[in-house]
TrEMBL record:
A Pfam family of this chain: ADH_zinc_N
Residue span(s) of domain Enoyl reductase (ER): 11-323
Species name: Ramlibacter algicola
Matches recorded under Gene3D superfamilies: Medium-chain alcohol dehydrogenases, catalytic domain, NAD(P)-binding Rossmann-like Domain
InterPro entries: ADH-like_C, ADH-like_N, ER, GroES-like_sf, NAD(P)-bd_dom_sf, Quin_OxRdtase/zeta-crystal_CS, Zn-ADH-like_protein
Protein name as it appears in the record: NADPH:quinone oxidoreductase family protein
Protein origin, superkingdom: Bacteria
Molecular function per GO: oxidoreductase activity; zinc ion binding
Matching CDD domains: QOR1
């Protein structure tokens, strides 16, 4: 097998495409022939030694991928050789083969393409957990999605619409906003133009959004929180903007009767596996019904992983980048 190996987590340039022994699954594991893998923001942080999970060296990055089960370890009964699966295991995806814990693999229904499956679990699970579970989003409420043209942002738009909400998408360019409208956003805001608070006020008839979905952090967090509706819920999903993590004056939640809500889907899936499994089954059903579908910016050969990292760093990506073998 071949894989991109991280032997020194000092950045993308240190990754090397290497010939490695093909692994055999241990008890509770499966070996997967990888067909496609997607690039997520944590995949950048982990090779820079900036992610909260620090795997032992050396490791193969690539948190999310899809492929075919080639071998099963002892005790694995719900998966079989030849079955198509998607997996989110944190590492291992940027190669031709990997072994993964079987309980982290999602069996794919018939007709679920590998490219979509490789871009599905992280963004849709995060966004569903955020909006449906943590925010308790109700039909008729208004959701403001920041970073709306990215992977989790596009998933959040689709999930909020499936839940019956009105969606305002905020992004940094007109082409990104056009994408957001094409997948269901009811209104859009370019937060690089004009006064953001004024734009939010105009888009919500002065009420403010009931729910804010924020995977970005950065300089817009405080003005957006100041614009939230009474009893609003501000979802802290991530900090893709980089730099300092924003700090909010604690009187703001008090004055708005609002909630600052943390979203950590990874720990939710570990602590509440039954609830997570039910959520993933619902999402698979929504995909089959056409309610959700990953937005794929482009598909590149696995050999062009470093190019994909560069594209992600340029902030020009709309939706997800997917790498394929073969």
């Amino acid at each position: 097998m071949h894989a991109w190996l991280c032997e020194n987590p000092v950045g993308v340039d240190a990754l090397q495409w290497k010939d490695l022994p093909t692994p055999e699954p241990k008890a509770g594991e499966v070996r997967i022939g990888i067909q496609a893998a997607s690039l997520n923001f944590p995949d950048l942080l982990i090779v820079q030694n900036k992610y909260q999970h620090k795997p032992p060296l050396p490791f193969v990055p690539g948190s999310e991928y899809a492929g075919v089960v080639e071998a099963v370890g002892e005790g694995v009964t719900h998966l079989k050789v030849g079955q198509n699966v998607a997996c989110l295991s944190g590492t291992g995806g940027f190669g031709t083969h990997t072994v993964a814990p079987a309980h982290l693999c999602m069996p794919l229904p018939f007709g679920f393409p590998f490219t979509d499956a490789a871009a599905f679990i992280m963004t849709y699970a995060t966004s569903h957990h955020a909006l449906v579970d943590r925010a308790q989003l109700k039909a008729g409420e208004t959701v403001l999605v920041l970073g709306a043209a990215g992977g989790v942002g596009t998933a959040a738009i689709q999930i909020a619409k499936a839940a019956g909400a009105r969606v305002i998408a905020a992004a940094s360019s007109e082409d990104k906003l056009a994408l957001c409208r094409s997948i269901g956003a009811d209104a859009t805001i370019n937060y690089t133009e004009g006064n953001l608070r004024d734009a939010i006020k105009a888009a919500t008839d002065g009420k403010g959004p009931d729910v804010v979905y924020d995977p970005v952090g950065g300089e817009y967090a405080e003005p957006v929180f100041r614009s939230i509706a009474w009893r609003g819920r501000y979802l802290v999903v991530g900090f893709a903007a980089g730099g300092a993590i924003p700090a909010l004056p604690m009187n703001l939640p008090l004055l708005k009767g609002a909630s600052l809500v943390g979203v950590f889907w990874g720990d939710f899936s570990r602590r509440e596996p039954k609830a997570n499994a039910a959520m993933m089954a619902e999402l698979a059903g929504w995909y089959a019904q056409g309610k959700v579908k990953p937005v794929i910016d482009r598909v590149l050969p696995m050999a062009q992983l470093k190019d994909a990292y560069a594209l992600m760093g340029s902030r020009g990506v709309k939706g997800k980048l997917v790498l394929v073998n073969g």
